[in-house]
Design a protein that fits this description.
Elements: E1 7-8, H1 21-27, H2 32-41, E2 45-50, E3 52-57, H3 65-72, H4 78-86, H5 88-99, H6 124-134, E4 138-142, E5 148-152, H7 159-162, H8 169-184, E6 186-188, H9 189-195, H10 200-212, E7 217-219, E8 228-230, E9 242-245, H11 256-263, E10 284-290, E11 292-302, E12 307-315, H12 321-339, E13 343-350, H13 354-362
Length: 363
């Protein structure tokens, strides 16, 4: 976590919830309860809006206060701002209930079912809690099944961290960009800005300041048509021995432009694509072997049957399929342990690797 700086959250549990995957991809199988305990019971990490909804170290709370100030001033989340202005007493009543103890939106004494089509199917109470989260009054804990409960942020972030001085927006952005550089190793400006989803125009000025201070180094990267930036602490390994499947929300691939620039890997999630128009599948994971992404695999965990189902397997161009399949078998073995099922099984017919992958099981 010290190297990554954050874990993106996502509610889609097709294989396993995405926050568990980046640590698995770097360390191998582990007990997911360890992450839950550290994040939601020990409060070493907390939920915040960073790279989308994310888990971040609790020590980083001061660096994210600028977002809460912007929200309070009406610069973001306009629909929630309008709710807070239209229903100030209701929002205050919701906060009062949270002060009495952690609760879910459905636990509110008056959750207020939605009216009309505004904000989809969410209740007004849920939106009020979301507003209080955006402005830093409440935080989030998770229970079984990833169920969300809201608690006062004061009870999640320790007193000594909340008492720290609030950095200016410029100072916070500089530090977050510096950390993005350390996490990415080498990156173009858009990559650094995307890591914590910072404002684009002002962040370019902050990057120039980091270069001037020697906290980022300008770099020329073979094959890139734009300037790169290198962390002064970056170490170039003699070799890369990766053999793992990646979440669609892993920092290696979450910024699709960088994934294409680094690996010549064009990647899109097809969850929201109609089934008959999908190219690769519903939930497709990149397969990293050595220092290349050599394949993409459509997977689904069937917990009722205790099987990790392989629905599709597609090799990238110029891939040694024999070497790829050998590595993929190991990676699927590891992922099977991670998601807690008995075995993996070829259950689909899509892709040029799928037949040979099935043969590996029956051989």
């Amino acid at each position: 976590m010290g190297r990554l700086g954050l874990l993106q959250l996502d509610s889609v549990p097709v294989v396993i919830r995405t926050q568990y995957m980046p640590l698995f991809s770097r360390l191998g199988p582990y007990d997911p309860d360890l992450l839950d305990r550290v994040a939601y019971h020990d409060d070493e990490w907390f939920e915040a809006w960073s790279h989308e909804a994310s888990l971040v170290p609790v020590d980083d709370e001061p660096l994210l206060r600028w977002q809460k100030r912007r929200a309070r001033e009406g610069g973001t989340w306009q629909g929630l701002v309008e709710l807070s202005e239209r229903e100030p007493q209701y929002v205050a009543d919701v906060l009062g209930q949270v002060r009495e103890g952690p609760l879910a939106a459905s636990d509110l004494s008056d959750p207020r079912p939605r009216e009309g089509n505004w904000w989809g199917s969410r209740s007004i109470g849920s939106l009020a809690l979301d507003w209080l989260f955006r402005i830093g009054e409440v935080g989030v804990r998770r229970g079984p099944g990833f169920a969300k409960e809201f608690d006062l942020l004061d009870r999640i972030v320790p007193d000594e961290i909340r008492a720290r001085p609030t950095p200016s927006e410029e100072e916070a952005h500089r530090e977050l960009l510096r950390r993005a550089g350390a996490s990415l190793g080498v990156a173009a400006a858009p990559d650094l800005i995307d890591y914590h989803r910072l404002p684009k125009r002002s962040s370019k000025l902050r990057i120039d300041e980091l270069v001037e201070d020697g906290l980022l180094l300008e770099a020329s990267v073979e094959g890139w048509n734009r300037l790169g930036y290198l962390s002064p602490d970056a170490v170039v390994p003699r070799s890369v021995d990766a053999c793992t499947l990646l979440s669609p929300f892993d920092p290696v691939v979450w910024f699709r432009e960088r994934a294409e620039r680094l690996f010549d890997f064009r990647y899109r999630i097809e969850i929201y694509t109609p089934a008959d128009k999908r190219i690769y599948g519903y939930y497709v994971l990149p397969f990293l072997l050595g220092d290349r992404i050599v394949a993409r695999i459509d997977l689904k965990t069937d917990r009722a049957e205790g099987i990790l189902r392989v629905l599709g397997a597609f090799a990238e161009a110029d891939t040694d399929q024999t070497e790829t399949l050998a590595g993929l078998g190991r990676a699927l073995d590891d992922l099977t342990l991670m998601v807690g099922v008995e075995r993996w099984e070829v259950s689909g017919r899509n892709g040029d690797l799928i037949g040979r992958l099935g043969d590996m099981i029956t051989a």
